[in-house]
């Protein structure tokens, strides 16, 4: 199943992944970062200015169908919620109770009864196989302690033929750019995220057809991935 992106040049296929290594003690683990909860006010004030428009436009471009079941992995304070149509059934999960509390305030204030949020580990989703028509996740892959496990769970819960939308910073394929950004990784890990995650590594051999949306600018730090869950073999 091929996905065509409007107003964009042809997407390039994802390169085969390298074998995933075992988790190490130096992995990002934001839920245990002492600074994580303290960043929520700054997150609410600054982060939307950087990523909100891209996230909202990407959700709208999914053309979510009536009665579709949607899962957002790592919904945080709910920055993305305005883009989800009221004709869909949206579930958002996050490991941070503090961020979910902010999301619930927004849901009640706006009357978004089509959205439900709940605490859950992105690496251990508590949903049956093939539960959702759409799965979205924004700037979460490089935050969890095991990105491969998270993506495996996403592939498990999305229905065959269903859509997965990922926006994240991924390691540049340009060796010079990658080397420069990699130098920040030891620092960012103390804050709960990493800079050296490759999208090829996290997708691996999962049953997903993945296409990379061309960046609007060569200087953009963020990549948009569109994936379709492949039909299971008979």
From TrEMBL:
CDD domains recorded: AdoMet_MTases (cd02440)
Biological source species: Roseimaritima ulvae
The keyword Disulfide bond belongs to this UniProt entry's keyword annotation: no
Keywords: Methyltransferase, Transferase
Family annotation (Pfam families): Methyltransf_11 (PF08241)
Low complexity bias spans: 17-28
GO MF annotation list: S-adenosylmethionine-dependent methyltransferase activity
Protein name (Swiss-Prot/TrEMBL): Putative methyltransferase YcgJ
Domain Methyltransferase type span(s) in chain numbering: 71-166
Region Disordered, residue ranges: 1-30
Enzyme kind, highest EC tier: transferase
EC number(s) stated in the UniProt entry for this protein: 2.1.1.-
Example GO biological process: methylation
Top-rank taxon: Bacteria
Methyltransferase as UniProt keyword: yes
InterPro entries hit by this protein: Methyltransf_11, Methyltransf_Superfamily, SAM-dependent_MTases_sf
